[in-house]
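[step 3/7] inverse_fold.run input=structure_tokens len=55
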């Protein structure tokens, strides 16, 4: 794994966690943003895709 890929995944995960913290889902009915672990994984996945990790 390259440093660029790792950086994108880490930043994506942090952005997913920040989204959960500051926007989130107040009722708990939202499948992605209701759980901080899930939003972090989705953010990391988006970071992976944005880095060009998928060919």
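[step 3/7] decode complete -> sequence:
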């Amino acid at each position: 794994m390259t440093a660029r890929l790792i950086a994108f995944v880490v930043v994506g995960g942090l952005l997913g966690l920040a989204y959960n913290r500051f926007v989130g889902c107040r009722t708990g009915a939202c499948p992605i943003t209701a759980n901080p672990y899930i939003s972090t994984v989705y953010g990391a996945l988006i970071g992976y895709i944005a880095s060009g990790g998928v060919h």
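[step 4/7] annotate
The first helix runs from residue 3 to 22.
The CA atoms of residues 25 and 34 lie 5 Å apart.
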